[in-house]
Write a structure and sequence with these properties.
314 residues; 5-stranded mixed β-sheet; globular
């Protein structure tokens, strides 16, 4: 039987969580899938946990550690499905996700199917809460990107999307140079290569958060910032090639301003590069996040001085 959906899962030191992730695939109401798990050089018991699940539908590939992007590409290159879902080894799919997304994909050719998503914390699914976004609706590809970027905090966590294989063939695979924020680059180019993003009201991704410094997204190193810088640069170029107008330039500038806010205490050189880009785009109206005290200090002293004071207090 031909495989309808290939699920490609990178796995690095997720011994505590990957069993739940796999179980959420096994419990799907849709049966025509394959799961390819790429163990990215884990040093814990990830491999041993996955081995318990190996079957004619669940495959384990062991590779040396090269990062999640390379592991996803390995999984994709071994996959057979007409539709692809990249799914991280510490998250959970709702039981109906594949069924609901597949039905929508069948009736909407050359479209990417999205879903609802929300966070749960400290391994307690009872803390789950949906993270409602403006882009939770059917939208042409450029409009979806603009909606997703409207608050300068786009969320393109891999498990949200179901992608036709032909779109990946056209747009290209994961950029293996990237670590932090590799999903922004991949999904921006993939979405812009599609006709529309179709929203599934019934499918939900449960996104595990609060894992402390073990999570890649918590990385604050200069290397991680360089990856984020490159990802934003490429993603911005993809959008501006499609629509270079005042609206999109402001969206891009605001994302860069958010990057400056997060990076200037860690790597002033890369922060200054981003500030030059913002100037060339025409400036930003991004509202600096933070509590009441930080905002008062920002108005009095400027946000950089306020952040410096905050860092000294911490």
């Amino acid at each position: 039987m031909n495989v309808a959906i290939s699920i490609c899962m990178p796995a690095y030191n997720v011994e505590k969580y990957i069993g739940e992730a796999i179980e959420s695939v096994l419990q799907q109401t849709f049966a025509n899938w394959e799961l390819i798990i790429v163990n990215d050089g884990s040093t814990d018991g990830t491999k041993e946990v996955v081995e318990k699940y190996i079957s004619d539908k669940v495959t384990l590939i062991n590779v040396e550690n090269k990062g999640a992007a390379a592991a996803r590409n390995t999984g994709y290159n071994l996959s057979k499905g007409g539709y692809i879902k990249f799914f991280d080894g510490d998250d959970i799919l709702s039981p109906n996700m594949l069924q609901e997304q597949y039905l929508l994909a069948q009736s909407n050719p050359n479209c990417i199917i999205s879903s609802k998503w929300g966070r749960f914390y400290k391994n307690d699914i009872g803390t789950f809460k949906l993270n409602v976004e403006d882009c939770w609706k059917d939208l042409p590809s450029v409009e979806w990107i603009c909606s997703s970027w409207s608050k300068a905090q786009p969320m393109t966590q891999p498990g949200i999307f179901l992608i036709p294989r032909n779109i990946i063939t056209h747009a290209g695979l994961w950029d293996e140079r990237l670590s932090l924020n590799d999903d922004m680059e991949f999904y921006t180019k993939s979405i812009l290569a599609s006709n529309k993003v179709i929203f599934s009201e019934l499918a939900v991704l449960y996104y595990r958060s609060g894992m402390g410094n073990t999570a890649l997204s918590a990385s604050k190193s200069s290397k991680a910032l360089r990856s984020n810088f490159l990802s934003i640069s490429q993603s911005a170029n993809y959008l501006l090639q499609k629509k270079d107008e005042a609206e999109t330039r402001l969206l891009v500038a605001n994302i860069w301003q958010g990057f400056v806010y997060e990076s200037f205490l860690i790597d002033k050189a890369i922060s200054q590069e981003a500030e030059l880009i913002i100037q060339n785009l025409g400036g930003s109206n991004y509202e600096i996040p933070g509590g009441k005290v930080l905002k008062i200090l920002s108005k009095l002293l400027g946000w950089k001085m306020a952040k410096n004071i905050q860092s000294l207090i911490k």
